[in-house]
Amino acid sequence: MPSALRYDRLLCGTILTLTFFGLVMVFSATTASSETTWTYIIKQGIAASIGLTAMRYLMFLDYRKLRQEKVVFAVLGVSVVLLVLAALLGTGANTRRFLRLWHFSLQPSELAKPALILFLAFYLEQRRERLGDWRTVAGLGFIIAVLSLLIYVGRDFGTMASLLVLAGVMLFVAGLPLRFIAPAAAALVPLLFFFVWRVPYRLQRLIAFRDPGADPLGSGFQILQSEIAVGSGGWFGQGWMAGKQKMHFLPEAHTDFIFALIGEELGLIGAVFVVLAFGVLLWRGLRAAIKAPNTFGCYLALGVTAMIIFQAMFNMGVVLALLPTKGMPLPFISYGGSAMITMLASAGVLLNVSRYADRHSL
Q: Which residue from 335, 336, 314 is spatially nearest to 325, judged by alpha carbons?
């Protein structure tokens, strides 16, 4: 039992800072379309308000109540139903990942990630003495496969890959024997390459990653424009609102490539600020996991931390041309209501677990 049930103020402050910073940068990124700037910022503000409300609620709702079987499978069931609806009725460019709700859209694959974290935390704690049993592994594999395949049917390859990485991290840390992990990983690698190879635009992105200059006005355009944005920022940037690449040069400047805009307008200083902020999230998230009073809390904190950090690293890697282009928002910063709400709600669970950490050690 902790000495005081106080949430991690440094962790909370970092999350709030990134969220406010994201709203400011989304406003800047959308000024190229002056007639829609306020539409973007109002929608993002509504999503942030909903997410912050959920975060505050989950911060103080004892996370151990989430351990109930009915809660775990209710969340998982809702996620599966929404993924099925998205696969059947969804919309989106080259995808079926969004469900339209009046003037808003919902991305069910975003809910699948925290739903899987909750399920794995519950299941792994319940079966921690039987992780070497094939029936335990079969149960895990079935749920992971169902979620992954439904997301893939919705043509959201990036989220499917991040879901598999997230599951792999949690299973490895939980102590699942390598005799199960190694064959699964060996089978997944060629399967993922097959999924890339069979879809032309994915293959083009991979080719463009190797040599974006070979098609500067086509498949390599986004990578080159991102590099120009980051490179033109210098040490201190061109100034907030003063970026040029968002003027219809850099596609998705307000979503997946907002980190390029940060580099252009705020320079290396702004980019390093973002990297350090996610470094603080990693430090405090792992601290909460290590000091959690039970295995369930440890796995919850670990899963949420891994989800945030992996997505941030992947996004920044794509922007800096270190990884092939794949749509994945920068947590708390990129435009996108579903991602914002999901990340803030998940952060609330992480902050909840942090309340049970020892306040006297860093």
A: 314
To which H or E segment does residue 106 belong? strand 104-106
| Phi and psi at residue 91, to the nearest 5° | -130, 170
Q: Is the pTM of this model over 0.85?
A: yes
Rounded distance, CA 311 to CA 316, Å?
9
- CA 107, CA 82: separation in Å to the nearest integer? 9
- Residue 323 confidence class, pLDDT cut points 50, 70, 90: confident
User: Quick check: is 2 in a domain?
Assistant: no
Any domain includes 191: yes
Is the Cβ–Cβ distance between 325 and 34 less than 8 Å? Answer: no
Distances (CA, A) of 53 to 20, 342, 346: 15, 12, 12
Beta bridge partners of 100: 105
Q: What is the dihedral of CA 359, 281, 185, 80, to 10 degrees?
A: 90
User: Does residue 99 sit in helix, strand or coil?
Assistant: strand
Smallest CA-to-CA distance from 266 within 247, 230, 239, 245 is with 239
Half-sphere exposure of 140 (CA within 13 A, CB side): 30
Distances (CA, A) of 362 to 49, 209, 358: 31, 41, 9
From CA 67, how far away is CA 300, in angstroms rounded? 10
Please state the rounded mean pLDDT for residues 289-313: 93
Classify burial at 335, counting beta carbons within 10 Å of its beta carbon; exposed 0-12, middle 13-18, buried 19 or more. buried
Report the range of poorest mean pLDDT among 32-46, 222-236, 245-259: 32-46
Q: Is the dihedral of CA 148, 149, 154, 158 positive or negative?
A: positive
Asked whether residue 360 is assigned to any structural domain, the reply reads no
* Residue 320 falls inside a structural domain: yes
Neighbour count for residue 93 (Cβ, 10 Å):
9
Instruction: State the residue range of the domain holding 97.
Output: 9-354
Number of domains in the chain: 1
